[in-house]
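Weekly structure sync, notes
Attendees: PL (lead), two postdocs, one rotation student
Agenda item 3: pending single-chain targets
PL asked that the sequence for the first pending target be pasted directly into the notes so everyone works from the same version. It is reproduced below exactly as submitted, 486 residues in total.
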Amino acid sequence: MNQNSSSSSHSTAASQPAASWAELLSGVNLIRSLALSGGVALHAVNLYIATTILPSVVRDIGGIDYYAWNTSVYVVASIVAAALSARALAHLGPKAAYGVAGGVFALGAVVCATAGSMPWMLVGRLIQGLGGGLLVALPYAMTRIVFPERLWARAMAMISGMWGIATLFGPAVGGIFAELGIWRVAFWALIPLIFIFAGLAAIVLPPRNKADLQTSRLPARQLVLMTLAVLAASVASVSEEILFSLATLLIMLALTLLLIRTDQRAPQRLLPRGSFQVSSPLGALYAMSALLAATVGCTEIFVPLFLQGLHDFSPLKAGYFASLMSVGWTLGSLFTSSLQGNTLRATLRSSPLLSLASLLALTILIPWPGPSSWSISSLTCIALVLGGMSVGLAFPHLAAGVLVVAPPDEQDLAASSIMTVQLSAIAFGSALAGLTVNLAGLSGSEGAMDMANAARWLFIAFLAAPALCFLLMWKRAELMTQSNPS
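Predicted structure, written out during the meeting:
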């Protein structure tokens, strides 16, 4: 969107009455909110449940060699589905697109629940990932369709907050089923919830608008390159061979550069114009989202491992400590959704500083070997909450800003690409985190000092991400305040 159209959008938003939670959570808007946020909640709860019960799954059906691929397959499928969500929305319309997403997700849950071997479990996780990617990406595009612009920031905060809610229930539900030895019920229990939210979507979401139907072909080459790049990133993050990890990381970088070059020249685009140019408004917003998401992703993955290995935490306790980042994300989203003008800009510019403070604190606290004292545990909790809050403060406005500055003919694509960018950043961030941990001495050693060194260097290495985000945020904070004018 050019400067004039962006200013026009800003002026239009400024002339509208101020948004409120009461408007978003009342009448038909409440049902719409439940339908959209419910899909994200299902995706997030499933992710945490699966992580919790996976050790029980392996003990039952075997397949320890493919343990890490349960997450890798799910994330790769989710990224591909998120990239396809704009086409699904255009061709099927909101009602049918949401119904298809729920149906695919339910099918994947059935396959997982009935799996008798790890290959079948991976098939189920692949199908679940396709449905989950649609469920988590469609709400961002539908927000622009079903809500007025003044509600976009609050709607994004509500959707973002579902991750925090999921962390409160996912590990507990998964832990209960695992303790009772009925891990399959965890997958069956998701199916009624899927149909409830899909039914709500069918009732309140608008039908397909034929004028929005896209007849262009899918960006097949970009999707293949992106899938291969994410797979290479996943392999690099779990391999215990340092040279192999470095080689796959180089392959990932080469595939990513080829993806960017291909998408910039292709008539059928995977991401909107300007997405790969940090100097453009859209590229800057995507870059800030990616930097923050990658930081949180790497921390959530390895914190449970470090807490168990260095501080004698139980798996359930370590999982809940890691989930504090999502709790902080939710709190930050709710807090910042009502801010406006200069107060909002100042808050957004400070959000990467919270991430920096969190990583610095974790650099000191996590590598400290031995059982944690009350004070160390409390400070660790605060650091994790602050790390999540740094993303929650900014992400709803990053997402709303994307909807405002996107080219008029690519707004659906831009909206659905929000989650594509975030999931890709998490996948690539995980690869760099895994490589850092291996290089720091965790691979091939079970000693506490090696794990402590790995933890220390992991958090130090990722200090660069919020630092770069701070520089971008300082220059570009106004892009995220156009839908929340003073």
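Discussion points:
- The chain has two domains: 21-209, 219-486.
- Confidence is low (pLDDT under 50) at residues 1-16, 444-449.
Action: rotation student to compare against the earlier draft before next sync.
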